[in-house]
Amino acid sequence: MRTAYSVETVRAAERTLMARLPDGALMQRAAAGLAAACAQLLGRVYGSRVVLLVGSGDNGGDALWAGARLARRGAAVTAVLLAPGRAHPGGLAALRRAGGVTVPAADGVPLVERADLVLDGIVGIGGTGGLRAEAVPLAEAAHRSRAAVVAVDLPSGVDADTGQVRGAAVRADLTVTFGTHKPALFVDPAREHAGSVRLVDIGLELPAGPFLEALQHADVARLLPVPAAESDKYRRGVVGIAAGSARYPGAAVLAVSGALRGGAGAVRYVGPAADAVIARYPETLVSDQGPKKAGRVQAWVVGPGAGDDARTVAQVLALDVPVLVDADGLRLAPARDVRRRTAPTLMTPHAGEAAALLGVGRDEVEGARLDAVRELAGRYRATVLLKGSTTLVAGPDGGPVRANATGTPWLATAGSGDVLSGLAGSLLAAGLPALDAASAGAYVHGLAGRFAARHAPAGAHDIADAIPRAWRDVREAGVG
Ligand SMILES: NC(=O)C1=CN([C@@H]2O[C@H](COP(=O)(O)OP(=O)(O)OC[C@H]3O[C@@H](n4cnc5c(N)ncnc54)[C@H](O)[C@@H]3O)[C@@H](O)[C@H]2O)[C@@H](O)CC1
Ligand SMILES: Nc1ncnc2c1ncn2[C@@H]1O[C@H](COP(=O)(O)OP(=O)(O)O)[C@@H](O)[C@H]1O
Ligand SMILES: [K+]
User: Fold this and answer.
1) If we measure between CA atoms, which residue out of 128, 126, 136 comes closest to residue 53?
2) Which residues pair with 52 in a beta bridge?
3) Is the C-beta atom of 462 inside 6 A of ligand 1?
4) How far is the CA of 12 from the centre of ligand 3 (A)?
5) Residue 91 Cα, ligand 3 centroid: separation in angstroms?
6) Whole-number Å distance between alpha carbons of 389 and 189
7) Tens digit of each residue's pLDDT (9 = 90 or more) over 22-36
8) Residue 478: what pLDDT?
9) Side by side, which strands form the sheet with 148-152?
10) Model-level pTM?
11) Of 55, 154, 202, 216, whose CB is crowded by the most CB atoms within 10 A?
12) 399-427 pLDDT, tens per residue?
């Protein structure tokens, strides 16, 4: 599991550690890791042209000390000072001792354009708002140039705690972050600015409860249900799908396709698309009795392609088993009915649906996903999975939010959300708590999307077909 901590927690851990260490020791650790990552990226340090973008704080200090190390190995290093007079004095002296030179910001653009490597030390966790005006042309030149751009701790201009980007921000190929990941490195739009991310251990001791966590193969492998020797289909869990309409029968088929690959022992379907479902998946148990009388079901999925069928949504919400509410179901589920439930509820909106529930614009949700997912989870007292370029899952009682790391923009294809709802619903029926069902479901779904769209676009049914491969990949890598 990868974890991220808020700026406040990082600062507190840093204070504790600094009290035990000689002055400047932490910055040396950071700079050593940073210089090593840069050297690796460059391949040949000797003779390379390195430009440091240096702001007024310790982030600039890290860049200067790392620049000094590269200069000692034969790189031509120039520091562009964005706040001359306020650049880190120790770092500046070290760079100059190593043969590096400094120039004011106004002279920086041509140097950046000719560089092999640009180090972004403008701001780190001390940054507020987007890049200041004088830094913008430098960031743009770095993006345009053929130089590799390495962000120090964070891409400058992004908000460390929320992943918001208010204004211009650096776009990096690699971010070298210190002590712990920061939330912005997992959450779009900031994450997209970070490139690949490398964590340098500087010895920070962090508390048990992170701010954000991102599951990896081994974590998901532990969550995925495996039938025991004495299992039968009922013990493995039965998932009920109440989805589809005369107008959208495909949503029912796709939700069932995800559910069949999600680990439950059986899939029950109720709704007007039974013929279409059976034609494609004859193993589905179809009932025409409505959710209440459909027979044993350990978890329900309601909403995909449901149109205006508020009655079915209300019936499902009244059942005392875990319920996943998606798509049209979100609009049709009154907040008070969701809050009243004692069994877990998992809601799976995309940004547009989340915006409608919150009464804000879609851009607002996409710009501040962490806030949106937390707000919804609190309002509905439910677990909420917010879909999109970064999928986030928040539980109703606070605690760390989970960010999914396996997604791919290829998933943005009609019907892929229906597949996810079936898959996550099946995991609920198999007995996973809502937070785990949602995050393991998103993880496997994202991976399936990557497999399905390896060298070509894929449809939602291809993503469903790739779920077994994704599942196997997780199990084999995670538990051997
Ligand atoms: N906290 C830690 O544990 C460690 C921190 N280190 C480095 O120290 C950094 C934090 O240093 P600081 O606290 O000095 O803060 P920063 O270097 O992030 O920012 C310093 C100053 O930049 C100015 N500023 C704020 N927003 C700006 C913007 N949008 N554009 C331009 N200037 C802006 C402000 O005057 C602010 O005080 C970390 O990101 C990391 O790189 C490392 O040296 C090692 C350990
Ligand atoms: N840009 C993107 N990058 C990664 N994943 C995305 C992106 N856009 C959408 N997705 C994913 O694709 C799926 C689409 O679901 P949804 O929006 O409900 O579509 P539909 O209703 O057509 O099924 C979700 O899993 C979502 O997280
Ligand atoms: K930075």
Assistant:
1) 136
2) 79, 119
3) no
4) 20
5) 15
6) 8
7) 999 999 999 999 999
8) 72
9) 101-104, 76-81, 49-54, 117-121, 148-152, 174-178, 196-200
10) 0.95
11) 154
12) 999 999 998 899 999 999 999 999 999 99
Separation of alpha carbons 348 and 387, rounded Å: 7
Whether residue 14 has its Cβ less than 6 Å from ligand 1? yes
CA 368 to chain centre: 13
Evaluate whether 103 touches 111 at the Cβ level (below 8 Å): yes
pLDDT of the residue at 480: 53
Helix (H) or strand (E) holding 303: none
Is the CB of residue 375 below 6 angstroms from any atom belonging to ligand 1? no
Ligand 2 centroid – CA 413 distance (Å) = 7
Is residue 67 within 8 A of residue 38, CB to CB? The reply is no
Q: Which domains does the chain have, with CATH numbers?
A: 2-213 (3.40.50.10260), 217-479 (3.40.1190.20)
pLDDT digits (tens, 9 = 90+) for 218-265: 999 999 999 888 888 888 899 999 999 989 999 999 999 999 999 999
Picking from 215, 210, 191, 213, the residue whose alpha carbon sits closest to that of residue 13 is: 210
Task: Tabulate helix, strand, coil % of the chain (nearest 5).
Answer: 45, 15, 40
Q: How many residues can be counted in the chain? A: 480
What is the 181 CA–ligand 2 centroid distance (Å)?
25
What whole-number distance in Å separates Cα of residue 239 and Cα of residue 244? Answer: 16
Are 81 and 102 in contact by the 8 Å Cβ rule? The answer is: yes
Exposed / middle / buried, residue 308 (Cβ in 10 Å: 0-12, 13-18, 19+) = exposed
Distance CA 387, CA 404 (A): 10
Q: Which of 15, 56, 122 to mutate to test the pocket of ligand 1 (most atoms within 8 A of CB)?
A: 56
Rounded Cα distance, 198 and 180, in Å: 10
318 is in an annotated binding site: no
Q: What is the Cα–Cα distance from 161 to 154, expressed in whole angstroms?
A: 11
- Give 431-469 pLDDT, tens digit per residue: 999 999 999 999 999 999 999 999 899 999 999 999 999
